[in-house]
Amino acid sequence: MEQKKSKLPVIIGGIVLLALIVIFGVIYINNRPKTYGMGEKKIVLQVVNGEDKHDITIKTNEEYLGKALTDNNIVDGTTSDYGLFVVTVDGITADDASQQWWALTKDGVMTTTGVDTTPIKDGDHFEFTLTTGYDMGSSGSASESTSSAASSGADASSASAQ
Fold first, then answer.
1. Helix H or strand E encompassing 86
2. How far apart are the first and last CA of the chain?
């Protein structure tokens, strides 16, 4: 009888350990970065929506960011003479009524090209940040104009034409 009692803590410990492994496995699977595509270039896109940030890994052979993103259904928007104006990123849609738009940066620096004309190479890191406010009279009007044009596919010199 005493031998059975001495094995009970070991059995309980094993069950607890197994339960913890399963719990941590589920947490990892639900929070790991998303990976899209197949290709030789591997880039990371960070999606920033307020305090929420998550990374998407994209494997592609495309030359430009816009094609890599649209091929994998990561972005959606409207196309004009200036290129793709990004409205939705990873299922999050900017609310035009609230003056929201997606700012495109590379390693934290505003891009001077549009999403369709932004070249990519292996190891690049881009960010799409959901931004609120079209106020061109604010102190950040130059960067807002540039990044708005960047997400729309226009280069910085075309921003004033919009």
1. strand 83-89
2. 84
